[in-house]
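re the bet — no i am not wrong, look at it urself. input seq straight from the record:
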Amino acid sequence: MNPLELFDRWYQEENMVSGATLPGACCLTTRGLDGFPNGRFVSLKEVKEGSFIITGPTNARKGQEIAADNKVGLTFWWPVTGRQVRIQGIATPVSAEAADRYFAERDEAARVVSVMCTQGTPVDDYDQMVARFQQVLEEGAVGKERPENWGGYAIAPVRIELMIFSATRLHDRNYFEMRDGRWVHQKLQP
């Protein structure tokens, strides 16, 4: 059993039955620079060549934390199908060409935010920032050229757990670990 194929099937099923706006929403967990775990929701762009691709500002907290320790976690929760996927893996930057493509695929508002904001830093006047955002959006001043501080990460999974929830709490847990270049599967107790 290949966990990546199972993940893809589950992802497609959740997307079909839920109609979720962001079926790729997942919690990325990093080790904070202060040693505390740090989780936030990000959007999965795709699974490519066996890695889970996410994007964002590389100078934001998540980028700084990945640069300091590239061992990360991804967690998906799909309520309609009652499934959870937990992934532990190694994050490495995607190529500049791939980052360019992912940035160009973003909608205009997302590109404007990426260009005009420094994610996670304090804002002195929120209303002024919103007004500036509207102005830049209306002017169409931001094209598809990627800012230098924006990129992506390919997360190569080392461990994957796919779990189907049960009302009885007798959850079906399938744990996979990459060993010697192949996936080793084990059932886990709920």
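see?? The chain has a mean pLDDT of 94. told u. also The longest strand covers residues 150-164. so pay up
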